[in-house]
Amino acid sequence: MTFEQLLRLMAHRGIAHAPKKDIRRPPQLRRTQYGPMFQAMPCILLSPHPTPIPEAGDDMPTPSRPAVLELIGNTPLVKVSRFDTGPCTLFLKLESQNPGGSIKDRIGLAMIDAAERDGRLRPGGTIVEATAGNTGLGLALVGRAKGYRVVLVVPDKMSTEKVLHLKAMGAEVHITRSDVGKGHPEYYQDVAARLAKAIPDAFFADQFNNPANPLAHETSTAPEIWAQTQHDVDAIVVGVGSAGTLTGLTRFFKRVQPELAMVLADPVGSVMAQYSRSGTLGTPGSWAVEGIGEDFIPSIADLSSVRHAYSISDEESFDHAR
Which of 93, 104, 146, 162 is catalytic? Predict the structure, then answer.
C-alpha cells in the first residue's frame, strides 16, 4: 500500500482527512528509498484538517483537554542499586518524570479539575497559590494549558532557576520573605490569601487545606505504587510539605495493607518530625532544602501511619543528592 492509498483509506474510515492538495510524503520516507520499511511500519498521520479521532469509550484526550495533561502520573519505579540499603529492597518512585518535573503535577491537575467542577474556577479566571516552587510549576503547567492566569507567591529562599522556570511557563511570580512565620503579613501563604481576595474571579488553590490534594495521591500515586510493587511493600518513605502525599498514601494503604509503615524524612528545623514523634510542636528553625518541611501542621495532615520520623540535616541531604 502506498502512502497516498493509506491516507485515502484512513480518510474513508474517518480516521484522517486531508484534501489531495494537502498530502505530503515526509522527505525521509520517500517510497523509492524506504518503500518496504514504510509499508510495514505503523503510522501516526498529522492532517492539516483533522477530524475527531476518539469515539465513545476511547481512552484518549478530548479536544478541550490539553494533551500534555495525559502525561501526568504513571511514573516509573526504579530499584536502588548504588546505595547500601541493608536487608531491604529499595525502590524510588521517579516523580521527576511528570511533565512539570515533580509529584506536584498530580495535585495541580486535581485541584484545578475540582475547582472547575464545583464552579470556583471559571473561564477567564485566575489561579492563585503560595508555593515552594513545585506546586507552582504544576499549577502553571495545567492552568496555562487550560488558558487561566496563574499568580504565585514564592519565598525568597527558592532557587533562581525555579523562579525563572515559573515565569517561563507563563506564571506571575511574587517573591516574599522566608524568614517570617505563619501570621506575619509577609508570610507567603498570607500574601497569597490577600491576593486571592483582591483579584477578581480568583481561585485560591490553598494546597495546605484543599481536600483535592490528598485525594490526588489516594486515587493515583498510591494505587500505582501498589500495582508496581505487585502488592509487596512494607514501608514507604516520604517528605512532608503540604502533607498531601502522606495523607493520600495513608488513606489508601489503610484499606489494602493496614500494617504498612510510613516513614517521615524531615529537614532539621521543620516541626513535622518532632510533632510526629511526641505530639508537641517545637520551635521552627530554617533549612535550605526546598519543598519539604513545615513550620506548622497542615490541616490535611494525617500522621497516624507514621512509624518512624527522622530529622535530616541540609548537609546530609545535599551530600546524598550529589
Answer: 104
Instruction: Please say if 104 is a catalytic residue.
Output: yes
pLDDT 10s digit of each residue in the chain, 322 long?
554 554 454 444 444 444 434 333 333 433 333 333 333 333 343 434 444 444 544 554 445 689 999 999 999 999 999 888 999 999 999 999 999 999 999 999 999 999 999 999 999 999 999 998 899 999 999 999 999 999 999 999 888 999 999 999 999 999 999 888 888 999 999 999 999 999 999 999 999 999 999 999 999 999 999 999 999 999 999 999 999 999 999 999 999 999 999 999 999 999 999 999 999 998 999 898 888 999 899 999 999 999 999 999 999 999 988 7
Q: How many CB atoms neighbour CB 306 within 10 A?
A: 21
* Cα–chain center distance at 133: 12
Question: Whose CA is closest to 216, among 105, 92, 62, 69?
Answer: 105
- Which regions of the chain carry the CATH code 3.40.50.1100? 104-204, 211-321
Strands 306-312, 235-238: parallel, antiparallel or unpaired by DSSP?
unpaired
Calpha distance 81→157 (Å, rounded): 33
Instruction: Look up residue 97 and give its DSSP letter.
Output: G
Which of helix, strand or coil describes residue 127?
strand
Write the class of the CATH domain 104-204. alpha beta
Residue 302 neighbours by CB distance under 10 Å: 17
| CATH number among 3.90.180.10, 3.40.50.1100, 3.30.450.150, 3.10.290.10, domain 211-321 | 3.40.50.1100
